[in-house]
Design a protein that fits this description.
By secondary structure, the protein is an alpha/beta fold. Helices cover 36% and strands 20% of the residues.
Length: 328
């Protein structure tokens, strides 16, 4: 029988980093406060003591500089993990990410790979206002060359991060600050979760509900509530945003004939817009209603708690979309 351990999301991420540093001496971690302070969210707690300052490196508040340093080291043989204290701060490093990380392999004719993982919290926390609450996946998802991962559970967080570190392409690994304390039993022994494979969290036949990251938890709770009414909703966790597992998505929609997409990011040009369009391309003849989207309101995220919660997708808005799709 597989031996299990109950860990928080942050611990699952830490274990992935630690195990990969042990497995491959080319792996190192750098970012703001990852060493002496044990990480802004304590994800890297204890790693400096174990691996030393050559492999766990504190950086200045200079994202463009240390992102470029990481990209250069990846091109010359190392496998860096670069932590952004918030993915909002990655905007300071957009020239390095957009002009170099995702294009060097193509521009060099395949001579230089960039095996680098950029990781850190993405999306809203709790009342940190709009400059610390942006969802970056639709922005970077527009750029060929990036792999984009957004786990919703500690199990996936560990397995997907290990796969990301071993991948030879630049990976954006999007965590969520509110989920760092989420606990779950995961195996003690090593395991990997494949990149590019969605997960059917709950099977159903009445409607497909698709989400990822923190929004997945709302959807799972809602599906449980609807099941008490005799409405079985299938819940699909994207896990990997790019590449997108349209096989799993299409199979589910063709079975249920109804679909609601949930995303913490904005409506216009968002991930739901892309997934929804691909669904109508591949499943049009199977749909019995339009594909509905529940996203963040089209405004910078407010600071005030009440309107912050109203701006983000919530259970009430998701349920309203389900009811409209099913004409309840």
């Amino acid at each position: 029988m597989t031996k299990m351990q109950r860990v928080e999301m942050r611990e699952a991420i830490r274990q992935a980093i630690d195990e990969e540093m042990k497995r491959d001496c080319r792996v190192y971690l750098m970012g703001e406060e990852v060493a002496e302070y044990n990480g802004a969210y304590k994800v890297s707690k204890g790693l400096l003591d174990k691996w030393g300052p050559k492999r766990v490196i504190d950086t200045p508040i200079a994202e463009n500089g240390f992102a470029g340093l990481g990209i250069g080291s990846a091109m010359t043989g190392l496998r860096p993990i670069v932590e952004f204290m918030s993915f909002n701060f990655s905007f300071v490093a957009t020239d390095q990410l957009i002009s170099n990380a995702c294009k060097i392999y193509y521009m060099s004719g395949g001579r230089f790979s960039v095996p680098i993982v950029f990781r850190g919290p993405n999306g809203a926390a709790s009342q940190v206002s709009c400059q610390h609450s942006h969802c970056v996946e639709s922005i970077y998802g527009n750029l060929p060359g990036f792999i984009i991962i957004s786990p919703s559970t500690p199990y996936d967080a560990k397995g997907l991060l290990k796969s990301a570190i071993r991948n030879d392409n630049p990976v954006l690994y999007l965590e969520n600050e509110i989920d760092y304390g989420m606990k779950m039993e995961i195996p003690v022994e090593e395991y990997l979760v494949p990149i590019g494979k969605a997960r059917v969290v709950r099977e159903g036949k009445c409607l497909t509900l698709i989400a990822y990251s923190r929004m997945l938890h709302f959807c799972a709770q809602i599906a449980e509530e609807y099941s008490k009414k005799g409405i079985e909703i299938e819940v699909v966790d994207l896990r990997t945003i790019k590449p997108l597992d349209m096989g799993t998505i299409s199979e589910s929609v063709r079975k249920t004939h109804f679909c609601v997409l949930v995303e913490e990011g904005h409506l216009f040009s968002g991930i739901c817009a892309e997934v929804g369009f691909q669904i109508q391309e591949q499943c049009f003849d199977f749909l019995d209603a339009p594909v509905y989207r529940v996203c963040q309101m089209e405004t910078p995220l407010p600071y005030a708690k009440e309107i912050e919660q109203a701006s983000l997708p919530n259970k009430e808005r998701i349920c309203a979309a389900i009811d409209e799709a099913l004409c309840l």
